[in-house]
Amino acid sequence: MSYSIQNLNGCTKKFTFNYEQVDLTKQIQAALVDKQRNANLKGFRKGKAPLDMVKKLFGPQVENDALSRFVSEEFYAALKKENIRAVGYPSFANTKYEGGKNVAFEATVEIVPEFELKDFSKYTFKKDDDKVGAEDIENLKKQFLGAKAELAEVTEAGATLKKGQSAVLNFEGERKDGAKPENMKATDYMLEIGSGQFIPGFEEGMIGMKKGETKVITLNFPADYHEADLQNEPVKFKVDLLEIKERKFPELNDELAKELGYESVADFNKKSTDRLTVQKKREVQAKLQQQILEKIIEDNKFDVPQALVEDQKQSVRQDLSRTLKQQGFNDEMIGMYFERWAADVNQKAEFQVRSGLILDKLAKKFNVEATESDLDVKIEEMAAQSGMKRDDLAHFYKSNANVKRNLMYAIREEKTFEKLIAGMKVS
User: Fold this and answer.
1) Distance linking the first and last C-alpha atoms of the chain
2) Is the Cα torsion angle 48, 71, 11, 361 positive or negative in sign?
3) pTM of the complete model
4) How far apart are CA 301 and CA 235, in angstroms?
5) Which residues have CB under 8 Å from 254's CB, separation 6+?
6) Between the chain's N and C termini, which has fewer beta carbons within 10 Å?
7) What structural domains and CATH numbers belong to the chain?
């Protein structure tokens, strides 16, 4: 063997190659032909210059190209021989060549890490209730009827402010030095409680107040507040509650149901219950899966290839960019967001990489694969949930190799989680 291998960490290997009496004739000839094919020499058509002339003019460059070809071929041959799954591109260093004598070089490459998972059969998790109740249907009705709702004052004696209601208030903020800036005060201000418009604790502090009541709410500005001089600073808000308002929704009847695209109230209730049932089950399952992954990752430490993390960071940024643009962010604001939250993006990307490696290992452990039959079942489910035509969905997912591959990967993960959860205690 003309090389040795050193493990730098759990996912990085360093190859050291050393060859004596190396004959690069084959590689030099191949490099000459490549150079000849692209050479544009005076007096000859492109690619038609004699090999001897090409060699004379480009000898050192051709020899370097041949050396690079040799280095690459030997490195990848070693990977194949050692059955090593490389990630990303290798880094070559300390290349030395004496014509006709020897070649030496080093190659460092990240690999798919090998690791063993600790026993997870004793893990216990509590799954949230995924049943759809009357309150869920009522909340959905309010979403549909929101445009027809009227904001009316709550006039009941002794009524207290609740989450979801709106408050008409006067407020004035006082900093720790006693200053009362103009941008910390307002009169007849309308605030929906629970909307998150104010700093954390302000809206929560108003819950339970009565009309005409005055209250001092003591808070701290968040550590990441957009005004640097206010970050973590204590502040007192004097609040006068002038009115309590809440939205009054019209009663859903068959006529309104038809306006919303349903045949009747009964049709709305049935279809809404079916759709919410699927949605809630999916959300509850996703939360459980996240908890399981967090626990497994916490209990199993191993090195991950930075090349995979960097690739995943690009995907995370793309997803976040789309979300931020939907929220009204421009390119400059998005750039500032990523600069500020770079550590969070990296953490999320690394978590996803670890999750992917763990789920891949578990899929192999459980002999799980996604089949064409699984794909057909998934497409049927998606058609039923979305109301789209099954054939249209099938054409979309089966005619695009990348889209199909991503869906097949998601199906494989679902089947893996089914096996994983079956071996745990989930109540």
Assistant:
1) 55
2) positive
3) 0.74
4) 42
5) 264, 265
6) C
7) 3-111 (3.30.70.1050), 150-248 (3.10.50.40), 255-426 (1.10.3120.10)
